[in-house]
Amino acid sequence: MIKQKLQESFNRYLEELKELIRIPSISFPGFDKAEVSRSAHAVENLLKKIGATNLQHLIPPSSYPCVYGEIISDKTKPTILLYAHHDVQPQMREALWHSPPFEPEIRGERLYGRGSADDKAGILIHVAAVELILSTMGKESPNFKFLIEGEEESGSAGFGYLLEKHKDLLSCDAVIVADLGNFSKGEPSLTTSLRGMSAIEIEIFSTKAPLHSGSWSGPLPDPAQELCRLIASLSDNNGNILVPHFYDDIIAPTPEELDSYQKLGMTEQKFREEAGVLESTKLLVPESKICETLWRKPSLVVTAMEAGNRKQAGNVLQESAYARLGIRLAPGMNAKKATEQIIAFLQANIRHGLTLKIRTEDGAEPFTTDTSHPYFQYMAKSMEIAFNQKASFVGCGASIPGAEYFRKTFGNIPILLMGVEDPESNAHGENESLYLPDFEKTILAETLFFKELANV
Ligand SMILES: [Zn+2]
User: Full-prediction pTM beyond 0.85?
Assistant: First the structure.
């Protein structure tokens, strides 16, 4: 019956999603803040239509509104907090879009437009699943609280503040974060870990100004070479980070998670194709370790580097060299501690008395969750029924700061991470798209999960 109701209403959900995509709610400096407010109002209207009450905009210091609403049917039933975000990334290079980024267009089985997958579809999944369960179970349904953030893409700077400030209003038994995705099209996935992130800017100085290399090089150290050597000394030939005690706090994946990673069928070929790896480039780990390395190990990349510049690359001994290191943190690690460990390593290993200046950025903490709670099994089972395909536990190499904030605020309640992105979605890039069959199946899965909760 739920499936039939979903089929009858699916086109309406699709139209509502398209309306949201038409609002360029970009939460970045230099873009019109009023558009983020406009999308907050559109979300509020959607919640109002399905009967949500106590509607309000929770305002973080950035003033990008987070939308709240609730449907409380029976206080003896569990309360589920439903999270998604209504802000989007900038459109990037407009010329590369095959249809305008804020004018949704269906081509084949995909809906194209900025926010189609990340994360306006997440909002509609919650709205549709709640409407469907209320129409079938009525007062027997679980209770729902909606929390639709307005600054996720620009870093969720005020999200921890909002959760703390409205802790009582938001209190719940479980959270569903619909902002992730599936391992592949048609393969339902529950994400059980996220990596964290931190960044360090390094600058090395030797002289007061650049010098003629013929007149001065030889006796003097070259800051650019020293920077390269210093960065290279941070990791070994397989990408293992050599900073002492860097891996000490990492929470290893459970046997169940490892088993699930193995069954995903990640092959070196699939990985190479999706990443666009050149033929002669070798991976740092064997095929069997790709998922674990991507999701449960830290990584370090140079995201920018500068010494002189290519346009004016004369015969100059540069006075300074710069690099920015991006560090992805494995579950269990702490952003501040990891940053400090790397800084101590750099300070201890720089040579020739060169001056080292370091600037750090605020990091995001990694996340992992206890999958032994029965809700994980209910959700996996609901996904399996909806997709007619067994659900996998996967990790995510990227960061969603909100997930860890939920854990900090609400303690050890189940936090279920799912969503409708797939490897072809190209979220954050041009031609972002949503695979419509998975959108429909995910709505069904979430509705079946609510039904399961109503029955226990
Ligand atoms: Zn997102």
Answer: yes
